[in-house]
């Protein structure tokens, strides 16, 4: 009893680990149990586990799964979404289960950022061509298709959503600051980043107080928008070249994105918030900032975090500086799956036109599938939360002519580390004149 | 060795067999003797089996992993002590060590002093003594995650209560996560809030074992209450103080949950430049964020060594308490 004292902290760690293990074992046992039960005869239903990530409506598969399960008594989908965080929760767990050889779901979601890592580990995933999914090539833009081919040249993943790019802004705050509020006028206001800066100056001049809203949320969203636009201008690479060599320091795309973020931060236009943190969520709710870089999936994030009280206050406008893509995900079948054939059918359905359209309606996950993009249900969709903004049309425009950007094996680690430096610079723990050096150092360390 | 264990209980049922005839048959007696010798081992074995599985094995396996360049779900190759060598020259590791030690000192010293004062107060005849004694234990039964989440909100930059309160006195909003020392203070308060009462109760229990006649004799000799405290209470508490210092050292050096939750998201970075990244966080970051298992295992062993050293240093300090005054 006595020595449980400080073991409390220890115990907390142990409990957390145990909880993590429990979660692992629960989710790992269930599919195993089901597969064992269904192994006997073909008439018994096969359960295919699909594991995704993301907050709120995440992949938007609720309706799609219900629809499938209703019409396929022999193949039942079990959809799980264990966490809203990919890089630091979902990915490490997935890797551990892949290495352990059991516990991973039949179909797993993979964020774009980790595709480099997964491409380098072909031993863990099924070859989709064996199940005829290589015929789907014409359904996807080249950018999305090529990223699903691993280092052995095998197709292992098909695209779900695609980010695209727009700007979400608070219409009410814009009008209060004497700026136009209509989305077309706002889009015209900022054809490029120089004019965007001017708008920011005007906004900030109208909001000089300490507790007044800031123009931007923080460095992360702006940086990702910029990098997604700059990478295609510089050989379609960002942190790594196509031989997986770190080019962080020499790639002008990274430097340009960094410098632009620095300018906005120095001008005092950011609310100094790191994205996807509790204070950031709180500021979304309380109107702490007016503009944010906005890929399609971000629309869902804003809606969930701002809450119903802010319905109609947000709107979506075009992005300064042209098209780009931030984020988007893939589905793959693990090699440990006991029913790869059925899993392939499920994957085919979820990444097909029908699955894509339902996911878009549910979670604003913009389809990477071309037939789905052209479907009127996508093209003409308007978001009532965003003042009836025609999100289908806005994001559809932004993904036209998108080029495949190469992401290295350690892209996710480098991205996390360098963005931490941006946050530190914005919040003042790293002086502006040392920030680039720290940025490079952090990237080199994470890549090593 | 086994004979030191209390044997009467197992021996008693065997009593009817004490007849010489039975003993002569040998076999039954041998079995009884085997039973007598083996049972105690059998009865204590669950602990050692669990310890072997969850204690010794991970310890050994970690050592083995630490000698490899081991990537999660990737390649591994034997590199000997290279992980340890690069750790010793890794500024990020030492930054984590400094943070851990700083938070250990900032949290533990006031915590133990406060616990001692609290225990002394609770040992006096005060009204509602039971209420206060139970009250100081309350934080103990709160989930550490809940504590960290609530405190992190209190320390929020924009909408936190502490900044609001400081704002009443014209202090600018502090970004508690931004500087090392502000983060250290914030995290230390979480630790203290949770553990001070617990230490106080342990010290109180120890205080109550001190014979009353010592105080009576001292009072007769004219010793003040303060003098009684320093000359009688503290020296008599020495074994207990050593115990809580040990436990606090181990807990403080493995600090994890509070700083992780203070960060807002589980990247394990402990702030933009690692302002409050502890060694435990460093280990998890290397293993499960950067997927470098070998490096993390080596860091875990260095933390183990660090705790041993820390405990020894603290022991050499505390054993002198109330020594030869």
UniProtKB/TrEMBL annotation, chain A:
Source species of the chain: Streptosporangium pseudovulgare
The keyword Signal is assigned to this record: yes
Signal sequence annotation: 1-22
InterPro entries: Bact_solute-bd_prot1, SBP
PANTHER family to which the protein is assigned, alphabetical: ARABINOSE-BINDING PROTEIN-RELATED, SUGAR BINDING SECRETED PROTEIN
UniProt keyword list: Signal
Protein name: ABC transporter substrate-binding protein
Pfam families: SBP_bac_1 (PF01547)
Automatic annotation (TrEMBL), chain B:
Localization annotation: Cell membrane
Region (Disordered): 1-28
Membrane topology per record: Multi-pass membrane protein
Keywords: Cell membrane, Membrane, Transmembrane, Transmembrane helix, Transport
Primary localization class, coarse: membrane
Alphabetical list of Pfam families matching this protein: BPD_transp_1
InterPro entries noted in UniProt: ABC_transporter_permease (IPR051393), MetI-like (IPR000515), MetI-like_sf (IPR035906)
Residue stretches making up the ABC transmembrane type-1 domain: 97-314
TM region positions: 41-64, 92-118, 130-155, 236-256, 293-317
Source organism superkingdom: Bacteria
Skewed-composition ranges (Basic residues): 14-25
Family indicated by similarity: Belongs to the binding-protein-dependent transport system permease family.
Protein name: Sugar ABC transporter permease
Organism: Streptosporangium pseudovulgare
Top-level taxonomy: Bacteria, Bacillati, Actinomycetota, Actinomycetes, Streptosporangiales
């Amino acid at each position: 009893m006595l020595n449980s004292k400080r073991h409390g902290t220890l115990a907390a760690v142990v409990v957390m680990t145990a909880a993590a293990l429990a979660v692992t074992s629960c989710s790992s046992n269930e599919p195993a149990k089901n597969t064992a039960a269904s192994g006997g005869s073909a008439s018994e239903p096969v359960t295919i586990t699909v594991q995704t990530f993301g907050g709120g409506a995440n992949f938007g598969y609720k309706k799609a799964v219900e629809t499938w399960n209703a019409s396929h008594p022999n193949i039942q989908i079990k959809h799980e979404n264990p966490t809203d965080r990919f890089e630091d929760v979902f990915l490490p767990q997935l890797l551990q289960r892949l290495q352990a050889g059991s516990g991973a779901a039949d179909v797993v979601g993979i964020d774009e950022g980790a595709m480099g890592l997964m491409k380098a580990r072909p031993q863990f995933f099924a070859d989709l061509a064996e199940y005829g999914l290589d015929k789907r090539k014409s359904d996807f833009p080249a950018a999305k298709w090529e990223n699903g081919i691993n280092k052995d040249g095998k197709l292992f993943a098909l695209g779900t959503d695609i980010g695209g790019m727009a700007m979400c802004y608070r219409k009410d705050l814009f009008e209060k600051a004497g700026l136009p509020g209509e989305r077309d006028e706002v889009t015209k206001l900022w054809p490029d980043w120089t004019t965007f800066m001017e708008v920011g100056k005007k906004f900030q001049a109208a909001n000089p107080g300490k507790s007044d809203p800031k123009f931007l949320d923080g460095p992360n969203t702006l940086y990702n928008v910029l990098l997604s636009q700059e990478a295609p201008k510089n050989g379609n690479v960002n942190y790594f070249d196509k031989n997986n060599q770190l080019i962080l320091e020499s790639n002008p795309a990274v430097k340009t994105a960094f410098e632009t973020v620095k300018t906005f931060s120095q001008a005092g236009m950011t609310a100094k918030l790191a994205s996807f943190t509790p204070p950031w969520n709180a500021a979304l709710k309380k109107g702490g900032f007016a503009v944010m870089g906005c890929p399609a999936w971000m629309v869902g994030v804003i809606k969930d975090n701002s809450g119903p009280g802010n319905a109609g206050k947000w709107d979506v406008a075009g992005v300064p500086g042209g098209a780009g893509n931030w984020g988007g995900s893939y589905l793959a079948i693990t090699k440990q799956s006991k029913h790869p054939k059925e899993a392939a059918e499920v994957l085919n359905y979820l990444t097909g036109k029908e699955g894509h359209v339902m996911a878009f309606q549910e979670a604003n996950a913009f389809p990477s599938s071309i037939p789905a993009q052209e479907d009127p249900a996508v093209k003409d969709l308007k978001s009532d939360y965003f003042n009836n903004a025609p999100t289908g049309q806005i994001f559809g425009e932004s993904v036209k002519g998108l080029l495949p950007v190469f992401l290295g094996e350690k892209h996710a680690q480098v991205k996390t580390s360098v963005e931490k430096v941006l946050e530190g610079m914005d919040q003042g723990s790293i002086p502006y004149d040392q920030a680039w050096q720290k940025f490079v150092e952090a990237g080199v360390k994470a890549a090593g | 060795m086994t004979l030191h264990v209390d044997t009467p209980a197992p021996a008693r049922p065997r009593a009817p067999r004490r007849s010489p005839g039975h003993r002569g048959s040998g076999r039954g007696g041998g079995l009884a003797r085997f039973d007598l010798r083996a049972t105690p081992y059998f009865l204590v074995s669950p602990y050692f089996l669990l310890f072997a599985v969850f204690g010794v094995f991970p310890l050994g396996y970690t050592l083995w992993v630490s000698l490899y360049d081991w990537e999660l779900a990737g390649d591994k190759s034997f590199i000997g002590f290279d992980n340890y060598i690069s750790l010793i020259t890794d500024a990020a590791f030492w930054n984590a060590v400094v943070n851990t030690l700083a938070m250990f000192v900032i949290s533990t010293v006031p915590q133990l002093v406060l616990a001692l004062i609290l225990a002394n107060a609770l040992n006096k005849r005060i009204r509602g003594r039971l209420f206060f004694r139970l009250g100081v234990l309350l934080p103990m039964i709160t989930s550490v995650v809940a504590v960290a989440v609530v405190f992190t909100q209190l320390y929020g930059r924009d909408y936190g209560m502490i900044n609001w309160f400081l704002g009443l006195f014209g202090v600018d909003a502090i970004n508690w996560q931004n500087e090392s020392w502000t983060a250290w203070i914030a995290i230390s308060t979480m630790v203290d809030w949770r553990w001070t009462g617990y230490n106080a109760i342990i010290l109180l229990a120890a205080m109550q074992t001190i014979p009353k006649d010592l105080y009576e004799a001292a009072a007769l000799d004219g010793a003040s209450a303060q003098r009684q405290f320093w000359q009688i209470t503290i020296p008599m508490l020495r074994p207990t103080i050593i115990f809580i210092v040990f436990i606090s050292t181990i807990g403080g050096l493995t600090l994890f949950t509070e700083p992780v939750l203070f960060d807002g998201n589980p990247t394990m970075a402990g702030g933009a430049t690692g302002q409050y990244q502890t060694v435990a966080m460093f280990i998890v970051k290397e293993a499960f964020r950067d997927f470098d298992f070998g490096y993390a295992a080596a860091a875990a062993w260095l933390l183990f060594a660090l705790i041993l050293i820390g405990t020894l240093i603290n022991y050499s300090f505390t054993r002198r308490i109330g020594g030869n005054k």
